[in-house]
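Can anyone check this?
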Amino acid sequence: MSANAKRAEVDQEGSLEHTLHQILGQFAPLRVAALQILIYHIEGPDEEDRHVTDEEFMAAAASLDAGCAAARALEAEYFAPHDLTLPTVLAEKLADLTEALQELVRITSRCSLDDKKVKGFNPSAKMYDLCCLRVANGVSDFSTELGYFFLELNDKGRADALDHTSSIAMEIGKIGRVINMVATNASIEAARVGDAGKGFTVIADEVKALSSRVSSLSVSLTERNARN
């Protein structure tokens, strides 16, 4: 892998898009897992041709446990490295979702698979509210709002980058004008002193060429900003 490719890979891994992809990847299975727990509860362990088997129930429980740990670690693992602070509404959604996950995990963590049968499952009286409304819908709401939040951050980042580039282009333009003025003065002085100023003429020509390149760079940066 070339140095440029490695640098691009590192940049991608540290980007907001990559961070969002990682977070959503951890939260996506939780919605299905919560609904599987609810379906298992509604159908009951003794019903024939169940839609959720005992093995699937335990897999869903493990997924919820991992998701709950991920929710608790979001701040330190993903937001702090980017120096991000969630908006109040989004922070509240995350807190509510984490609380619901913890409650559901407390129920499923007591379960074990014995003789291919789930043992120790003691659902609460509000399993529909917990699994469907608070966890499944909570995951969807939080994921959607988080996507919008990261999109706004990306847009702001692009705008800040364009402003920074514009400032650089303006400064380069100023430098180009100063260099051009110095070259003009050098040419005048060279002409005034005649043959003794031939060395000044060469220097003046080089300074003018430098001024031209600097001005071209300033124009190039300005045009690139306009395209973006």
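Reply from J.R.: I decoded it. The CA atoms of residues 27 and 150 lie 16 Å apart.
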